[in-house]
Amino acid sequence: SKLPSKDVREGLNTNGEKNLTKTNDKSERSALTGRPKPPNKLPAGGESKANSTAVRKAGLHKVLSLDVTVAPRDANAVGQFGQAAFVASNEDAEVRKRWDEGHFNVYLSDKIPVDRAIPDTRPETCAQNLVHDDLPSTSVIFCFVDEVWSTLLRSVHSVLNRSPPHLLKEIILVDDFSTKDYLKEPLDKYMSQFPKVRIIRLKERQGLIRARLAGAAVAKGEVLTFLDSHVECNVGWLEPLLERIYQDRRKVPCPVIEVISDKDMSYMLVDNFQRGIFKWPLVFGWSALPDEYIKKNNMTISDPIRCPVMAGGLFSIDKKYFYELGAYDPGLDVWGGENMEISFKIWMCGGEIEIIPCSRVGHIFRGQNPYKFPKDRQKTVERNLARVAEVWLDEYKDIFYGHGYHHLLNKKVIDIGNLTEQIELRKKLKCKSFRWYLENVYPDMVAPLVKAEGLVFNRGLRKCLAVEKSSLSFEICDLSKQSQHFNYTWMRHIRQQDLCVAPQGSGNGFALRLCDNVKPELRWFHKSSNLALVGRLRVCLLLCLLSFDTLRLNPCEPTNAFQKWQFTHYHAQ
Ligand code: LR7
Ligand code: MN
């Protein structure tokens, strides 16, 4: 039996979620008629059910079953039918030697036919689904840098063999300045057999985001379909994606991403009802729809699943719509974050992201990027994420920075580049707020705007911190006094309006200073009731209370009640 492998897809998997994506049934239409469906039906689609009545209607046909699954060229070949392949033990050294070329079993991949068959993993009803005869055509865009020969070819063949020819306008291979010789003339020569395949060569390394933009710029299809260059498209993968766009051009459908094992190259099913989500600080993950949600909405395994964010690599989008949305922020470098950008942009500016269970594509999940980053990998990704946060997260961006990214606020440490155009674009498109997105698209996301708030109680003195004539004092605790209310923010500020609790000069005194996100000296760690200044290394210095109600920094004393502080409400730790 197949291994469910959602964990392979991405380490993060959060189950047991409570509230889920709110529905917007009004925008749902019947696959058969294109007419709006009656309200209070499935949130995530459900149109496909109509197709079980295998009635042939004018203008519609069953999803084409283009495949070589039944009789592949060589039924006995290694890895045929997506089965696990093995190498003899005396080949282990060779496997290891070639692993780093792609961070998967390259040696084995090279032995497997480039047009192997894979199991048709779609839910049963999918083959019976009706789609329109006049679906838009698509350009399939593969960007690659130093991709392994056999996986690149297998990706291309899977598209050529399993896409209805009239819907496949072209395949665009964007070579992001690869260094390997086999990707030059040999690739040109190989692909010249296939008139639909075009190769674009970038003159310098652009990264996958700008490489995709370069591919899109020359695409002639009405729809753009982006794929990673180490995938295998399954039977009937394309039509269900195009059908969704046909119904509503602002839908951005993604296939179910199945797993091609990096070790034995087997094609593995993933669990049903998985959707794309993010966790702070903008980390992509998968999460299962809870059973009660599925039951309540009468969802079947073939119904589209609305996703707060997409994985990034595999999706179709109406080309005009892609450009209306401003495509990708071209300031994003190399790898990472662009899936967050396009996801927020789609939802906040009127579109929808869905996973279409009848469309399935396998992807080799690799432990590491097999190519070099022109700059430091970590810095590249966090810079991309900071751009996304600045443009799309509104007041929620502090939560992003508060999850280990404070340093990105310091313009001297990192230059995230100019954002004027992106901010203008958001205004021009009249996109909704991030708060709207959280409330309507991803309501189960925990996103408190402050970590703690209320009174700041000192356990030893049994009094509360207060602002008195713009300096700090202690008073009998009184919730009704605004002067005693503070926020403990994601910036780790102890804050009242614009004022932050801060040490005074180099001495031991304390004062209120204007808050400033960039200044590290205003930040406090708050752990086990202690308040320690960030950045005073080793000697754990605490905000502590001596006689005469004054504040000082002293070495931490675990048992000193005068060093123990408590806010009234905690939202996050
Ligand atoms: O500089 C580069 N230039 C490129 O052309 C870097 C990469 N690339 C190509 C690369 O050859 C590959 O074909 O871009 C494609 C994606 O790169 P991968 O395969 O290294 O990315 P990934 O699969 O590790 O990462 C996921 O997140 C990325 C974030 O930027 C992209 O969105 C990838 O497309 C995306 N992949 C998927 O969504 C597949 C499922 C993974 C999950 C979850
Ligand atoms: Mn990939």
TrEMBL record:
Basic and acidic residues biased stretches: 19-29
Entry's Gene Ontology molecular function annotations: carbohydrate binding; polypeptide N-acetylgalactosaminyltransferase activity
Protein name per the record: Polypeptide N-acetylgalactosaminyltransferase
Keyword Ribosomal protein: no
Mode of membrane association: Single-pass type II membrane protein
Organism: Anabas testudineus (Climbing perch)
Boundaries of every Glycosyltransferase 2-like domain copy: 139-322
Family, per entry: Belongs to the glycosyltransferase 2 family. GalNAc-T subfamily.
Residue ranges constituting the Ricin B lectin domain according to the UniProt record: 454-565
Main location (coarse class): Golgi
Top-tier EC class: transferase
Keywords: Disulfide bond, Glycosyltransferase, Golgi apparatus, Lectin, Manganese, Membrane, Signal-anchor, Transferase, Transmembrane, Transmembrane helix
EC number: 2.4.1.-
The protein's annotated pathway: Protein modification; protein glycosylation
Manganese keyword on record: yes
